[in-house]
Write a structure and sequence with these properties.
Arc Repressor Mutant, subunit A; 152 residues; mainly alpha; globular
Length: 152
């Protein structure tokens, strides 16, 4: 059911054999988070690849935020460790949209919905979110929607 989870496990085994400490630590952490997610709620269940990608994206975002916090506190060594873990996680995520690609998707959603003005932001977000699907952070999408609705 979850090919991505199997790939993560296989890569964990390979990283352990290669004695790659960062990769091993990161994959163990993300597999633990996936297991937690599977047993949370009323009944345990197996996560689908899309749900696993959401867990990976959440953990990658945590690493970026932690790296920024460590950098701001003058702790470059810990910031670089967080960034290294984030790069390991990024390898399992879909390719992120660049600014031009995101702008094009938002423009198409605005045209499709006929939205005008900042009050239509929810309507546009509802239309653009399925097209983005893990390829851009929600805050980044919202900022682009806001920018286009207030500019146009």
């Amino acid at each position: 059911m979850a090919e991505l989870k199997d790939r993560l496990r296989a890569d964990l085994t390979a990283s352990m054999k290669d004695r790659d400490a960062v990769r091993t630590r990161t994959l163990r952490m993300v597999l633990t988070e996936i297991a937690k997610e599977e047993v949370s709620g009323a009944a345990s269940r197996e996560l689908h690849d899309a749900e696993i990608e959401r867990v990976l994206a959440r953990e990658a975002k945590r690493r970026r935020e932690a790296a920024e916090a460590f950098s701001g506190a003058g702790r470059a060594d810990q910031a670089s460790a967080e960034l290294a873990e984030g790069q390991v996680l990024a390898a399992y995520l879909p390719e992120q949209l660049d600014d031009a690609g995101l702008a094009a998707l938002v423009t198409a959603a605005i045209a499709e919905t006929g939205a005008t003005g900042p009050r239509a932001m929810g309507q546009v977000m509802k239309a653009v979110t399925p097209g983005v699907a893990g390829r851009a952070e929600g805050a980044r999408v919202a900022a682009e929607v806001r920018r286009q609705l207030t500019a146009g």
